[in-house]
Amino acid sequence: MRNWAPLTVGSALVLACTVAGWPSLAEPAANDKLRPRQSSQTVFEGALATQIQASHQPAEALVYTSGNGQAYATPFAAQRIGTDGPLLLQDTHLVDNQALFNRKNIPDRVVHALGAGAHGFFTTTTDFARQYTMMSLFQRVGQTTPITMRFSNAGGHKGSPDTGRNVRGFAVKFRTPNGNWDLLMNNSPIFFLRDPAKFPALIQAVGENQQTGRADSDAFFDFLGSNGESLPQYLRFLSDAGTSQGWLKTDAYSGHVYKWVKQDACLSFRQIVFKSSQGAANYTAADQAGVGNPAQAAQDLFESIKAGQRPGWKVYAQVMTPQDAEKFRYNVLDLTKEWREDLVPLNEIGKVELTQNPTNYFAEVEQAAFTPGNIIDGWEPSDDPVLQLRLFAYTDAQRYRLGANYQQIPVNCPMNAVANYQRNGAASYLGNQGSRPAFDASYAHLAVAPRAYNNDNHTIWKSGAIRYLSQVSAVDFEQPRYFYDNLSPDQKQSLVGNFAGGLSQVKNPSVVNRALQVVQQASPELAQRVYFAMSAYRAQSS
Predict the structure, then answer these.
(1) Catalytic residue, candidates 153, 178, 180, 186
(2) May I ask which residue range the UniProt record assigns to the signal sequence (predicted)?
(3) Which fold has domain 114-187+244-418?
(4) Is 112 an annotated catalytic residue?
(5) Residue ranges for the binding site?
(6) What ranges make up the beta strands (E) of 229-359?
(7) How confident is the model at residue 15 (pLDDT cuts 50, 70, 90)?
(8) In which region does residue 297 sit, left (phi positive, over 0), alpha (psi from -120 to 50) or beta (all else)?
């Protein structure tokens, strides 16, 4: 493994993407120097490396210039005719500054807009994963892989408090020798839905009222009343688990089922779990309301890394064979169902440590793009319908937000060479793959790697073994009943209070009744307690 200390992650990635001869992750490089390019080097290719190097120099070492590199003597003065005359259009520095300022923001993420990020390493700590997958990062105990992580809140916009009641997101980009692998997780092992067609409706319902622009309790609880399968996630969201004490003290779950595959094409189903090394901890609603710093989670993350504390998570896998999946009580492709740890045990596979804060938030966090479609050999998506739609939705969202060539942005760029027939488009600034033909020309073939394994029978097997169930049934209320029954008395009281407090804000009586009817199917006790607590809230406010 090469020593990354002399380079920031941003500069290393850009150089890896733009300079020929960059050594592979497995190849040592003396003094971190790059091998010279061949004679095909163009006159402008050194410019990009120069700009990256300049971005990491202190202000005192640089001279102010305009965008084209010309030193500029009066950056805070506008040209005008006389003392009181109009501005001059020839003041291109002023015009360029204002034009760029007008365009400095890019579209927010539709969900998970609020976030923070950092860089670090994943280390393989056991040989468990190697028994089930050929993924390169798991093949040797002690092997390290550079990563970038983004932490987020699913709801709200940039500038929202990061400690409020919310679903927390973890996104990890693993930079392996054979491509980037992205793992997307939430702080819950389940989600609100299993039918991806409902996702836009969910986000609208838990978001802002179309008229007032504020939170809408009627819409929030109406979604529950119309979609009983969402109750398990509603209970977690309204419990103390919905107000975690920052990202550092949060566990995370892949939620979706993926496939691990070996060289012999043997497959297994699995989920990934991150357990916080800082210890998972939650606020009560009252404690959370007393948090004065609206950016407490982001500050804790930044200060912990700055202090050299190397915050981290132990990484575990839950594994089922196809035969295990057939016998499992619940459909393993159902995102509303949890793989309880007492039924499907956790197996340690590694650890994550964060060692470096971003040098520039926009370049390394806001422009970071994660998608479950970034996969490598040994890892495959399952037929979970929500996951299948996310494979498209995330890459499509990144193209809208960052442009067609978002994978050429330094923080998203793989460490190994990219060679294909994708050309042109806005911001294609990494050489556009040179003079090679943009098709499979008979006189200029790209070498094609052999298939890593034959997975032709995987879908046939799963289609015969597991069916996707879309109707709400009594089975859907077993896990929320188990969740409630296993809370402590204090935790039950918190859940009842939070649920009743939200429901007391609902104006439409039918929405209240339908939500309570859903809860009743899981736990008559919980439904009754919520009803009486809601009535008490309303009596106090009347």
Answers:
(1) 186
(2) 1-21
(3) Catalase HpII,  Chain A, domain 1 (2.40.180)
(4) yes
(5) 394
(6) 252-253, 258-261, 267-276, 312-320, 347-356
(7) very low
(8) alpha
